[in-house]
Amino acid sequence: MKKVRWGIISTANIAQTQLIPAIFRSDNAEAAAIASRSNKVHGVAAALNIPKAYESYEELLDDPEIDAVYIPLPNHLHKEWVLKAAAKGKHILCEKPAALNAKEAAEMIQVCQASDVKFMEAFMYQLHPQHARVKEIMASGEIGDIKLIRSSHSFYLENRESDIRMDKSMGGGSIYDLGCYSIQAIRHLADAEPVEVQVVSGRDAATGVDMLSSAYLVLDNGVTAIFDCSFDMVSRNEYEVVGTKGTIKVPYAFRPDINAGMGLVIVESDGTVRQEKIYGDLYRLEVEHFSSAVLDNSALAITAESTIQNMRVIDACYKASETGETVSLNAD
Which CATH architecture has domain 128-285+311-328? Predict the structure, then answer.
């Protein structure tokens, strides 16, 4: 089988612990090179069994044997390196959030399309089969008409002084880091777009970063949604869909990998409760999905349009958080 040859832009923890091991587990991908801005990259490459190591990102992008790159850099660097990778003809899997705002995301995607390269925002959770099952149950009518979607994503952030998520200039903040998942899930589940958002945030006094945000969204199909995200709470990664006849709860929505890949869909209707366990190796599924799209020129699960729209909602959430006002997302 032909394999996509991946280059990793950065020795970021998520690359070393999640994405690169998933490439090795994949059937249609290989980890061909890794780059860093220091000589520590050689030790990382040796430890992870990656054949090539570069001490600059540019060198990796100049390698003609690299087909696709994974970019897990800090949020404020995504645009720069997506544009540079596209210019070199590399397909791009970019960590979430794709950019700092919708304008940046649109520019990045326009360049990728003009360069004829694939681009996907790395919402790995969506590739786990539990979400397709939730959509099936919703479509079946078992829980009736959908009225409300609730989502929560949080963890307690340690070592805050040295964490880039506490740096506002680098795209730090709980909405960027965690709320983006809930926004994407709400839009995906409802097949609808937010038209109005209200947000209340608690901020870190020293940095101004939002440590906790709670949001209320009105969608264009009449469904309402609520999400919260926080660096200051116990770990949660869940959503609930509430209908006129029942509910669907997904307690391991965004990180089933920390539950041995097991997703859980809990359906309550007509006074009965049913649990469905659904397994999937979500980082491997992400790598194989993107690699297949490159090899077969097939469509991606997370589209460019969805990425831009997700950033529009993030923009609106931050505006609502900062002004304390209800923000409308106009149709254009």
Answer: 2-Layer Sandwich (3.30)
Other beta carbons within 10 angstroms of residue 116's beta carbon come to 10
Both structure tokens of 198:
């209200």
User: Are 4-122 and 128-285+311-328 the same fold in CATH?
Assistant: no
pTM value > 0.90 = yes
- Residue 212 carries which side chain, given as an amino acid letter? L
* Residues 39-93 pLDDT 10s: 999 999 999 999 999 999 999 999 999 999 999 999 999 999 999 999 999 999 9
Domain ranges for the chain, please list them.
4-122, 128-285+311-328
The tens digit of pLDDT for each residue in 251-262 reads: 999 999 999 999
> Side-chain half-sphere of 98: how many Cα atoms within 13 Å?
34
CATH number of the 4-122 domain: 3.40.50.720
